[in-house]
Automatic annotation (TrEMBL):
Its cofactor is Zn(2+). Residues 186-259 form the Alcohol dehydrogenase-like C-terminal domain. The keyword Metal-binding applies. InterPro entries: ADH-like_C, ADH-like_N, ADH_Zn_CS, GroES-like_sf, NAD(P)-bd_dom_sf. It comes from Candidatus Brachybacterium merdavium. GO terms for molecular function: oxidoreductase activity; zinc ion binding. It comes from the Bacteria. This is Glutathione-independent formaldehyde dehydrogenase. Belongs to the zinc-containing alcohol dehydrogenase family.
Length: 380
């Protein structure tokens, strides 16, 4: 089959790879109809992880079941499904608690969590390909209505919609709260949108890519451009108060300042300033224990200069980690079906798999029109 394979920094190629096959009785094989490119893929694409050439990318996958293992009970050939990016077993201690991003059985001993097509997340090829093997399929597939309706909305259930929602959940947001979201990429947009769905009174979105801030304004958030000055100060001034109730980091360790210089802890520290005393911070932007392209030797080991003193003094709380996408995917699916949520406002491109290398380069440059790219292997 055809698949998008990592070749090395800034280089991906569509090439022939082996077809996936049923390996365990609980597997299914899915024919991919949509697989999205994610900001998380860019960390690997830019050579800013330990990813080795040869990985098939793609953790945001949906499609139609092509083949069913003999141990699968709830799914049949022809079913339309979306696959939350976390590969998980469903029966370990963490899965039982809903913490499917920290599954204890799908990765090496001593580590937790699995994902399709991601470095360090187990031996699971990604779905930017014609077909995908899904382990523990009864648990890892989220059933969808048959047909092609809401394809772009449902595709976002694999990662960014539940991840944005999770960022808001980690922040402890309650209806009526004010919240600041750092990052107007797809994840930040979904966090802002989730906060609005959950009854936030005011939502600020911080970035410096103006066309991304325009999208945030269109959904009812208040854009803050960090090129115009310290974002925490801009927000507290607009608020006329000491700080927002909640904050979300949807940027991660490749955060930059106005000049374009990377400062890995800048968003974490600005959130300490932005959020009020005893407020909550949800961190879904990615931080890694190792970064081969880090700006200094400490960041290379994931050690950042975090203002823990001010954080402690303000009595804030912080939640972090990969999102347990499966925990929210069914409910968010039902909101899409009933017309209460339409996250596809963030989607800007639907293209065949063969155009993925060009789309990676443009998404990586945050070009206008490349806010969220959906790949469709069937369009080739
Ligand atoms: N926790 C999870 O489960 C999970 C899931 C998906 C993505 N992620 C992570 O979320 C992050 C965002 O993903 P995305 O797809 O939206 O990526 P993206 O790269 O498209 O968006 C990041 C945005 O942050 C902006 N930015 C950079 N520095 C900033 C700063 N100092 N202040 C405010 N904005 C700043 C960039 O201009 C960009 O628009 C990535 O780190 C990604 O790996 C985490
Ligand atoms: Zn993703
Ligand atoms: Zn598990």
């Amino acid at each position: 089959m055809r698949a998008l394979v990592y070749q090395g920094p800034y280089e991906v190629a569509v090439q022939d790879v082996e077809d996936p096959a049923i390996q365990d009785p609980s597997d299914v094989i899915v024919r991919i109809t949509t697989s999205a490119i994610c900001g998380s893929d860019l960390h690997m694409y830019e050579g800013r992880t330990d990813a080795e050439p040869g990985i098939t990318f793609g953790h945001e996958n949906m499609g139609v079941i092509e083949e069913v293992g003999p141990g699968v009970t709830s799914l049949s050939k022809g079913d339309r499904v979306v696959l939350p990016f976390n590969v998980a077993c469903g029966f370990c201690t963490n899965c039982r608690r809903g913490k499917s991003a920290f599954c204890l059985t799908v990765n090496d001993p001593g580590t937790a969590g699995g994902a399709y097509g991601y470095v360090g997340m187990g031996p699971y090829p990604g779905g930017q390909a014609e077909y995908l093997r899904v382990p523990f399929a009864d648990y890892n597939c989220v059933p969808l209505p048959a047909g092609t309706e809401h394809e772009s909305d449902f595709a976002l259930l694999a990662d960014i919609f539940p991840t944005g929602y999770h960022g808001v959940e980690l922040s402890g947001m309650q209806p009526g709260d004010t919240i600041a979201v750092y990052g107007a990429g797809p994840v930040g947009q979904m966090a802002a949108y989730s906060a609005l769905l959950r009854g936030a009174s005011r939502v600020f979105v911080v970035d410096h890519v103006s066309h991304r801030l325009d999208i945030a304004r269109d959904i009812g958030a208040e854009p803050i451009n960090f090129d115009d000055g310290d974002p925490a100060q801009q927000i507290t001034e607009a608020l006329g108060d000491y700080g927002t109730d909640r904050g979300v980091d949807a940027v991660g360790y490749q955060a930059t300042v106005s000049s374009g210089e990377e400062q890995p802890a800048v968003v974490l520290n600005q959130l300490v300033d932005t959020v009020r005393h005893t407020g909550g911070i949800g961190v879904v932007g990615l931080y890694l224990p190792s970064d081969p392209g880090a700006p200094d030797e400490h960041s290379a080991k994931g050690e950042l200069l975090y203002r823990i003193g001010r954080f402690f003094e303000k009595g804030q709380t912080m939640g972090t980690g990969q999102a347990d996408a499966k925990r929210y995917a069914h409910q968010l699916r039902d909101m899409i079906i009933e017309g209460r949520a339409e996250p596809s406002f963030v989607v800007s491109k639907d293209i065949p798999l063969s155009q993925a290398p060009d789309a990676y380069a443009r998404f990586d440059k945050r070009e206008d029109g490349y806010s969220k790219v959906l790949l469709h292997p069937g369009m080739d």
